[in-house]
């Protein structure tokens, strides 16, 4: 609580002493939310809510879940959370995982495993903003994808051993030792039974609930983006000549952090390594958005932070390996 207090006091100090710069930072955060987050996440978040609420994924998921089940031992709905998390960016993976767990589509254990690796930068963000726009290295886009998303996939594969062991038994075996993720939940059964009777009034109520939930979460994300944009601008007033200090400063918010590292005077390979690690971690702003939108408790938040740190270290190893390969090929 003391850390939160001092952070808010630091922001208030920044707003009072540097009003012009603070106004620019707040405007930049709002524009980022309005131009990037709102038009991309709002319709997709609403669509996912409707698909889950009305049980419309049953026909699609069996056809796409086999590779995910083989790699991660997840259920069909777990495969949907992985797919959206890797394609749509922060914090959609955690949001979908949270919604699926609340509605009884996936077990608590499966959700715990998925939270560790489904939240990532989207491929479009990595290829367009990170590689092409900021680093000015569009031909290296594949390397950034392999390092950032590949590290999350590797961590997911190793951390999902328990799920793969559970799903080595067929779900059709009805026994007391059957995994909880294979058992149909009572809430899921009730939803299916209720959806068998078409009720216009109930359907529109469900749609309204999905719209309200999407608006609430989207506005919440915007508030976090503005707050961390201000915090990032305030911290940038401090000197950051050391690469480690530069990385810690950049970790506050991923978009401004990538811009900060890409525009620094460090050698290309140093910037490449730092940007890769930042992309894998996601930044403190994405962490706060994820914890809020998924309503994480202390235990789950600690698990999520540890997972992101491990994924960041894996991305650093992959980036160093790619640097060695590039240098070896140039010899």
- Could you name the ranges where pLDDT drops below 50 across 5 or more consecutive residues? 169-196
Shape annotation: globular
Task: Specify the number of helices.
Answer: 17
Quaternary structure annotation: single chain
One letter per element, helices H and strands E, the order comes to: HHHHHHHHHHHHHHHHH
Hey, roughly how much beta strand do the residues contain?
A: under 5%
Tally of domains: 1
Helix content: over 70%
Would you count the extended β strands for me? 0
Q: Could you tell me how far the N terminus lies from the C terminus, measured between alpha carbons in angstroms?
A: 54 Å
Q: Give the C-alpha Rg.
A: 21 Å
Biggest sheet: strands, sense, closure? Answer: none
Question: If you average the pLDDT, what whole number results?
Answer: 83
What is the structural class? mainly alpha
């Amino acid at each position: 609580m003391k850390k939160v207090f001092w952070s808010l006091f630091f922001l208030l100090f920044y707003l009072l002493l540097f009003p012009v710069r603070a106004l620019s930072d707040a405007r930049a955060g709002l524009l980022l939310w309005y131009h990037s987050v709102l038009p991309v996440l709002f319709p997709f978040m609403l669509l996912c809510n409707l698909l889950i609420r009305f049980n419309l994924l049953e026909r699609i998921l069996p056809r796409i879940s086999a590779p995910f089940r083989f790699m991660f031992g997840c259920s069909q709905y777990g495969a949907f959370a992985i797919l959206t998390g890797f394609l749509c960016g922060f914090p959609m993976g955690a949001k979908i995982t949270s919604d699926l767990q609340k509605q009884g589509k996936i077990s608590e254990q499966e959700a715990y495993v998925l939270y560790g690796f489904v939240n990532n930068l989207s491929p479009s963000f990595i290829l367009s903003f990170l590689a092409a726009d900021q680093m000015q290295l569009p031909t290296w886009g594949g390397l950034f994808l392999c390092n950032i998303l590949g590290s999350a996939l590797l961590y997911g594969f190793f951390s999902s051993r328990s799920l793969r062991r559970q799903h080595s038994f067929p779900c059709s075996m009805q026994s007391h030792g059957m995994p909880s993720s294979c058992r149909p939940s009572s809430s899921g059964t009730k939803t299916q039974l209720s959806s068998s009777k078409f009720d216009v009034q109930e359907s529109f109520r469900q749609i309204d609930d999905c719209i309200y939930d999407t608006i609430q979460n989207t506005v919440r994300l915007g508030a976090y983006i503005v707050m961390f944009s201000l915090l990032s601008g305030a911290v940038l007033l401090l000197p950051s000549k050391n690469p480690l200090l530069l990385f810690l400063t950049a970790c506050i918010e991923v978009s401004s952090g990538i811009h900060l590292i890409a525009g620094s005077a460090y050698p290309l390979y140093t910037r490449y390594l730092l940007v890769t690690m930042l992309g894998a971690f996601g930044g403190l702003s994405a962490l706060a958005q994820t914890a809020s939108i998924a309503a994480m408790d202390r235990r789950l938040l600690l698990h999520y932070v540890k997972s992101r740190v491990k994924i960041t270290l894996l991305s650093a190893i992959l980036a160093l390996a790619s640097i060695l390969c590039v240098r070896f090929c140039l010899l």
